[in-house]
Design a protein that fits this description.
373 residues; alpha/beta; Rossmann fold; seven-stranded parallel sheet; 10 helices; globular; NADP; oxidoreductase
Length: 373
C-alpha cells in the first residue's frame, strides 16, 4: 500500500504543470505558490548601498589582511612563552574546603568508591590533588603518587585531616599514602606500583593526572624539553595504565582507569603556541580508546576526562604574569569563565564508580563549551 501510494505521488508531481513564478524569491523557492511571496530582509535596498571600503570587507577573496579582524583571535602568538617551573618553584595547592556534611553514600549508592583503592599520579597538586580528594571523599583509600614526595606526604595528611573535620560522625577515615615516582621511567613506575600495592593490599582504580604543558613556538622548542613533555604526558600514562592493568589481570578483577587528557587533544589553543602538548594529549585520548577495547574482555574500563581551562594554582601564577591571556581565553569560552578544579570531582567519581559501568573508551570534555563553538 505504501509503495503504490508513493508511486501515485511521484506520478502526480511529474505531470503537474509548473506554475510561473510570481517573484524572484518564488522562482528560486521550492515552496512557490500563486500568492506572491515577499523576501524578508533587513538589508538596505540596492540603490542605498555604498561600496564597502576595502578595509571593511569581511572576505578573503581580496588581498590577505584586508581587514585587521581577519583571524586575529585564531592565531598563535610567539610572545606567549611559558616554561614549566622547576619543582622548588611549583606553587602548593590546598584541599577543597567547605564541602561539609557526612559524605558516605550521600549520593546514589552506585557512585560510592568504598572498599576500593585508587592510585592518582601527579596527585599532590592542581587537578591531581582534586582527583585524590574526590576519591577519598567517595570512600576510597588513595595512593598519591608524585615527583615531590614531601608535598605528597603533606597533602595525604591534609586530606585525612580535612575528612575528619568535615565528617565528624565517620567511624572510618579512608587511608591516604604518599609515594615517589618519575612517571617517565619504567623502573620507577614498576617500583611505585609495587609499593602502592604493598601499602594497600591491592589497586582497583587509576587516575593519570601527571602532566605539564609549556608554550614555545614549534621551531624554537628545545628537543630535550619536548622529550620530557612527551615522557611525562604520554609515556607516564602508558606505563601506569599497563602496570595497573597487569595487576588487575593477575587478580582477575575488574577495574576502572581514567586518563586526564585535555581539550587541547581535540583543538588548537590560541594564542599560545603549544604543538607538542596538543599532540601529546591527542595521543592520550586515543590511547585511552585503544586500551578500552583491548581490556574490555577483562572488565577493565578506560575513559578520558579532557578539561578545558582550569584555574589551578599554577594557572593563576601564569595569568598573574600575563593578565591579557585570561581575557583571550575567557572570550572563547561560551560560559564566559574558566573552570574550577573541583568541577572535575563529580566527573572522575562517575567514571571510576559502578555508576558508569557501561561506559568505556569515552572522552568526557569538561570545558565550559569551548570545543563546541
Amino acid at each position: 500500500m505504501f509503495k503504490s501510494s508513493l508511486l501515485r505521488q511521484v506520478s502526480r508531481a511529474s505531470t503537474t504543470a509548473i506554475r510561473p513564478p510570481t517573484s524572484a524569491f518564488a522562482a528560486a523557492s521550492p515552496c512557490s505558490t500563486t500568492t506572491p511571496l515577499r523576501l524578508f530582509t533587513t538589508s538596505p535596498s540596492q540603490k542605498d548601498k555604498k561600496p564597502l571600503d576595502p578595509t571593511e570587507q569581511l572576505t578573503t577573496a581580496g588581498e590577505p589582511g584586508a581587514s585587521e579582524h581577519e583571524g586575529r583571535f585564531a592565531r598563535t602568538d610567539e610572545s606567549f612563552t611559558f616554561e614549566h617551573p622547576d619543582e622548588p618553584n611549583m606553587p602548593s595547592s590546598a584541599p577543597v574546603q567547605g564541602r561539609g556534611g557526612f559524605h558516605f553514600r550521600r549520593t546514589l549508592a552506585t557512585f560510592t568508591l568504598e572498599d576500593k583503592v585508587g592510585l592518582v599520579t601527579g596527585g599532590a597538586r592542581g587537578l591531581g590533588l582534586v582527583m585524590s580528594q574526590a576519591l577519598h571523599l567517595s570512600g576510597a583509600d588513595v595512593a598519591i603518587v608524585d615527583l615531590n614526595k614531601e608535598e605528597a606526604q603533606k597533602q595525604a595528611q591534609n586530606l585525612m585531616d580535612t575528612f575528619r573535620a568535615e565528617n565528624p560522625g565517620a567511624d572510618h577515615v579512608p587511608q591516604v599514602t604518599a609515594h615517589y615516582c618519575d612517571v617517565a621511567n619504567p623502573d620507577s613506575v614498576t617500583a611505585c606500583i609495587n609499593e602502592c600495592i604493598a601499602a594497600h593490599g591491592k589497586l582497583d582504580h587509576l587516575v593519570t593526572s601527571a602532566g605539564f604543558t609549556e608554550n614555545f613556538d614549534a621551531i624554537s622548542y628545545p628537543y630535550d624539553r619536548m622529550q620530557k613533555l612527551w615522557g611525562v604526558n604520554v609515556d607516564g600514562t602508558y606505563l601506569f595504565a599497563t602496570g595497573v592493568a597487569r595487576h588487575l589481570l593477575e587478580r582477575k578483577s575488574p577495574g576502572s582507569i581514567v586518563f586526564i587528557g585535555s581539550m587541547s587533544g581535540a583543538i588548537v589553543n590560541v594564542p599560545q603556541p603549544q604543538a607538542p602538548y596538543n599532540a601529546a594529549k591527542a595521543a592520550v585520548r586515543h590511547l585511552g580508546a585503544s586500551l578500552a577495547v583491548e581490556w574490555a574482555h577483562a572488565g577493565i574500563r578506560v575513559n578520558t576526562i579532557s578539561p578545558g581551562y582550569m584555574l589551578t594554582a599554577l594557572t593563576k601564577k601564569i595569568l598573574d604574569d600575563n593578565p591579557e591571556l585570561a581575557h583571550k581565553w575567557t572570550s572563547l569560552i561560551p560560559v564566559g569563565k574558566m573552570g574550577r578544579p573541583e568541577d572535575l570531582m563529580g566527573a572522575v567519581t562517575f567514571l571510576l564508580s559502578e555508576a558508569s559501568g557501561y561506559v568505556t573508551g569515552a572522552e568526557l570534555r569538561v570545558d565550559g563549551g569551548y570545543t563546541v563553538t
